[in-house]
Amino acid sequence: MPLLKQNDILFAHKALGLMPDLSAATRRVAAAIIDHFNKRTGQCDPSIGRLMKLLKISRAAVIRATNELDGLGLIEKKSHGGKSHRTAYLPNWPLFRAFVGDWDAGMKAG
Question: Is the full-model pTM beyond 0.85?
Answer without folding.
Answer: yes
